């Protein structure tokens, strides 16, 4: 073939013609070379090498340290509730991805893994910072607009490829590489999948990443929903990748397959097109799978075809680039003033005013001549693992100093300064002259022996040397410690040191490393990780709380900045143990408030906090996420009223961790999780956020009197700014399905709009929703059903602050009795206890008991002449028993049978005889022992 006359490089031909020509030109070896994210060059076809992947959660991440515009963390972006702004943010990310691509010789940068669309039904999840909250409607709409902005407006060419992740059921870090999460059909269809659907059906996202965890017994890189739902139902046209290293984890942690070849083959057939793993491992595994006939060349062809199809639309294979509007993006756009302005606006709109008693905020410059800025998050912009490197960072302290040019601004971070004495020989830890190592050989306390103690809670402590302002850190693959790190940022947090008290007066401690190893002093006087702990004494040189109190006493106002460090106690690989503020921060707030009642608390955090004391005592509280390069300017603007706060919470802020079920309980319906089902008092509700003005609602009108299946319904309302300052209101529309035959949400967000109004300005707001979004998943017919009955439409300023409501009829179907006369999947139960969904026969879902569980099928209609239940079941090898009862659990069994098989997990049919007494009844299936049930049918 003449490489200078290649059809696939001619963009005058159709995409399908070009794709067919390229795929048909590839050898088997070349196809395999395109299977991992490190895609090889093919010189004979003028194809350069290209690396798929990269991060763009809140701005492009250049791991080499290159500068990019950095926005608030996604949890912060979700607080904007602003779809138009999200599209603008996405467009900035797309532009900078193009520049990054150009600056990296066009070898990488256009296929980035964002946004994170995981449902955040539990605020303890370590990666809460990365996603868009607990609601599928809010998450779906915001992430879809971000995707549209990222991918661009052209009909063919795309700016960059968005990859929604992690599909799906991913909301715990502990055990994520080997734990399977049980998700029943209703939760699956009404909650978890709903968040992802708009990204593909409306946003046309051209990639997707699967999760590490399993769902119902199968690792997510091999679940059937990849093809059945994402491809077939949603029409996804792009390529799908596994999460980083998932191929390796499948064998090494999950133990789902014994070999990587088996794991790759199954994932390839299930819909994975590109593997995020070591190139050599992927290609070796593919060759082995071919040799063992686990896959065919056609399986490879289908996968790489999906990837190449997208690369065509990125312009990778064009000889003529004149039609590609993104071929040569102005490099001056990177970190431009225009992009910084978008980041500033996004940061302002993300800030949530949680509380504002007696209009404490906004502060007035003329009345705050002396301002105390206090706390560990006041003078730093913390990075999370997916934060890029911004060209500059404006901390809250810097923002306030810039704003208050004529005021005296004092700052104390509230941390203690300490010295650590080795009790055995009464020597202090100090810094050696060679390599800044930590040694124990000083008898006096000076600068080299003084460390600032950062207490982030749950024994997540950091030590910063007063001598060189760097952190104490255990050296890589070495037991010793040095003081050479300017910041705490790495996959492993080797700077973390735990203090285990040995007495009540908190003087003597055992110390331990980030891995929990005891600390001691070696013969060379080096501080080392060892097997035998030593006793150390902590001596407080100066109290950060006392210093904070001193400046608070003499100030007009004290602003206390608290929150979390994204590298500790809640990050990738680590869930939070609790949802309270760190103990030291709580003590700091209380002490400052006692010294000065004009105290404001500003939370800079990656997730919700249980701040009950703050809510009860502190007059004003504000929340912002981490990350943004413009954080300080935005915070100062909101605190002093240049901007009226307009952020709204995308997650419920609970009062106590005891209000939450197990982090491994993914059933939000039975578990009463999220604002949709939670039925107790919370700290701050979903959608909450105050303003410096007030908004009045009136004239609620509907464009139809009946909700009908397959249509849309518009709701209009007039909103007036009743105050004297300009502000933005987030108008939120909720639905409550009444008269349902099954448990439905107390409220369900179905649309929202953000509107900016001048003082006394009125505006008519129109909200629209697809009526089928109110459908329930009918587990009997395995389809969505819009139930006939009534629906309460509520509109207001939060899920709890409802201003107007209207009841409307629903023209739908009735979910009356159900039938078990057809073969019914056991997972399609209506109720259950002490069971989970697992992988069953032929990879179909089954229900597995936890020794003594049950499932219930409600309102079962019996046909005349029916006298048998046929259950397909198995055991783990030990004998068990199944009993069947009618109406309720307290009645006698109408039939029971011992369940045993010749060998573990052998599936067999078991017939249960019964005598019919009622035409419609509830059917309970009770398990005694470790039993799995696949199907049930009445004969």
UniProtKB/TrEMBL annotation:
The keyword Hydrolase applies. It holds the Pfam family Glyco_hydro_3. It comes from the Bacteria. InterPro entries: Actin-crosslinking (IPR008999), BXL (IPR044993), Fn3-like (IPR026891), Galactose-bd-like_sf (IPR008979), GH (IPR017853), Glyco_hydro_3_AS (IPR019800), Glyco_hydro_3_C (IPR002772), Glyco_hydro_3_C_sf (IPR036881). The keyword Signal applies. SMART domains: Fn3_like (SM01217). Residues 729-799 form the Fibronectin type III-like domain. Keywords: Glycosidase, Hydrolase, Signal. One of its GO terms (molecular function) is hydrolase activity. Belongs to the glycosyl hydrolase 3 family. This is Glycoside hydrolase family 3 C-terminal domain-containing protein.
């Amino acid at each position: 073939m003449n490489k200078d006359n290649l059809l696939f490089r001619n963009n005058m031909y159709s995409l399908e013609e070009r794709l067919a020509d390229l795929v048909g030109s590839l050898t088997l070896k070349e196809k395999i070379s395109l299977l991992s994210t490190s895609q090889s060059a093919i010189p004979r076809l003028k194809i350069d090498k290209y690396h798929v992947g990269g991060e763009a959660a809140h701005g492009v991440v250049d791991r080499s340290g290159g500068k990019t515009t950095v926005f608030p963390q996604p949890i912060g972006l979700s607080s904007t509730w602003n779809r138009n702004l999200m599209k603008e943010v996405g467009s900035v990310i797309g532009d900078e991805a193009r520049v990054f691509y150009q600056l990296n010789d066009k070898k990488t940068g256009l296929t980035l893994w964002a946004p994170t669309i995981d449902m955040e039904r539990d605020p303890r999840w370590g990666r809460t910072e990365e996603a868009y909250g607990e609601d599928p409607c809010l998450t779906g709409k915001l992430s879809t607009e971000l995707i549209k902005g990222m991918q661009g407006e052209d009909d063919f060419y795309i700016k960059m490829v968005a990859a929604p992740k992690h599909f799906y059921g991913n909301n715990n870090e502990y055990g994520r590489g080997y734990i399977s999460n049980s998700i029943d059909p209703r939760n699956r269809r009404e909650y978890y999948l709903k968040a992802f659907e708009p990204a593909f059906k409306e946003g046309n996202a051209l990639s997707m990443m699967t999760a590490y965890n399993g769902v119902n017994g199968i690792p997510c890189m091999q679940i059937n929903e990849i093809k059945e739902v994402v491809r077939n139902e949603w029409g996804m046209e792009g390529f799908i990748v596994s999460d980083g290293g998932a191929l390796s984890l499948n064998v090494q942690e999950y133990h789902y397959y014994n070999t990587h070849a088996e794991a790759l083959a199954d994932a390839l057939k299930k819909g994975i097109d590109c593997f995020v793993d070591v190139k050599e491992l992927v290609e070796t595994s593919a060759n082995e799978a071919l040799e063992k006939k686990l896959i065919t060349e056609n399986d490879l062809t289908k996968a790489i075809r999906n990837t190449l199809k997208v690369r065509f639309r990125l312009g990778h294979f064009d000889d003529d680039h004149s039609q590609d509007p993104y071929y040569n993006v102005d490099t001056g756009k990177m970190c431009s003033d225009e992009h910084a302005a978008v980041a500033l606006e996004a940061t302002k709109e993300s800030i949530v005013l949680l509380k504002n008693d007696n209009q404490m905020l906004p502060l007035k410059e003329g009345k705050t001549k002396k301002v105390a800025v206090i706390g560990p998050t006041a003078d730093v912009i913390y990075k999370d693992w997916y934060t890029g490197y911004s060209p500059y960072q404006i901390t809250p302290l810097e923002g306030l100093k810039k704003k208050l040019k004529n005021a005296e601004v004092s700052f104390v971070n509230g941390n203690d300064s300490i010295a650590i004495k080795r009790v055995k020989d009464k020597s202090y830890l100090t810094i050696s002259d060679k390599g800044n190592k930590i040694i124990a050989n000083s008898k006096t306390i000076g600068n080299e022996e003084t460390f600032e103690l950062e207490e982030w809670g749950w024994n997540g402590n950091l030590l910063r040397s007063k001598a060189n302002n760097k952190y104490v850190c255990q050296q890589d693959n070495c037991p010793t410690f040095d003081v050479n790190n300017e910041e705490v940022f790495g996959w492993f947090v080797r700077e973390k040191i735990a203090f285990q008290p040995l007495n009540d007066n908190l003087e003597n401690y055992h110390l331990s490393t980030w891995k929990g190893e005891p600390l001691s002093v070696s013969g060379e006087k080096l501080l080392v990780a060892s097997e035998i702990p030593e006793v150390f004494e902590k001596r407080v040189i100066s109290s950060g709380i006392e210093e904070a109190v001193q400046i608070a006493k003499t100030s007009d106002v004290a602003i206390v900045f608290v929150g979390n460090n994204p590298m500790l106690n809640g990050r990738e690989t680590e869930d939070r143990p609790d949802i309270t503020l760190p103990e030291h921060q709580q003590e700091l707030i209380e002490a400052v408030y006692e010294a000065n009642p004009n105290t404001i608390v500003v939370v800079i955090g990656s997730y919700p906090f249980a701040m009950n004391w703050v809510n009860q005592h502190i007059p004003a509280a504000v929340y912002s996420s981490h990350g943004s390069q413009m954080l300080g300017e935005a915070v100062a603007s909101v605190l002093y009223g240049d901007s009226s706060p307009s952020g709204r919470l995308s997650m419920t802020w609970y009062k106590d961790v005891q209000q939450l079920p197990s982090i491994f309980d993914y059933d939000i319906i039975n578990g009463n999780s999220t604002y949709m089902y939670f039925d107790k008092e919370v700290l701050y509700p979903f959608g909450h956020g105050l303003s410096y003005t007030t908004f009045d609602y009136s004239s609620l009108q509907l464009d139809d009197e009946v909700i009908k299946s397959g249509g849309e319904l518009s709701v209009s309302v007039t909103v007036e700014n009743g105050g004297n300052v300009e502000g933005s209101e987030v108008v939120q529309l909720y639905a409550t399905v009444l008269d349902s035959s099954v448990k439905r949400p107390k409220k369900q967000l179905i649309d929202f709009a953000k509107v900016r109004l001048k003082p006394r300005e009125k505006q008519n707001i129109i909200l629209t929703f697809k009526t089928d979004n109110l459908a329930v998943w009918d587990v009997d017919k395995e389809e969505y059903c819009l139930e006939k009955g009534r629906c309460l439409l509520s509109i207001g300023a939060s899920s709890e602050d409802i201003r107007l409501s209207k009841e409307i009829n629903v023209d739908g179907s009735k979910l009356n009795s159900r039938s078990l006369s057809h073969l019914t999947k056991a997972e399609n139960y209506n109720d259950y206890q002490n069971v989970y969904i697992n992988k069953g026969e032929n990879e179909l879902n089954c229900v597995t008991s936890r020794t003594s569980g049950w499932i219930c099928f409600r309102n079962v209609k019996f046909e005349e002449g029916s006298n048998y239940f046929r259950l397909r079941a198995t055991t783990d090898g030990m004998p068990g028993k199944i009993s069947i009862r009618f109406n309720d659990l307290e009645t006698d069994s109408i039939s029971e049978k011992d369940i045993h098989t010749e060998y573990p997990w052998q599936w067999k049919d078991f017939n249960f005889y019964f005598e019919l007494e009622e035409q419609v009844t509830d059917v309970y299936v009770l398990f005694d022992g470790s039993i799995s049930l696949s199907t049930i049918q009445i004969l």
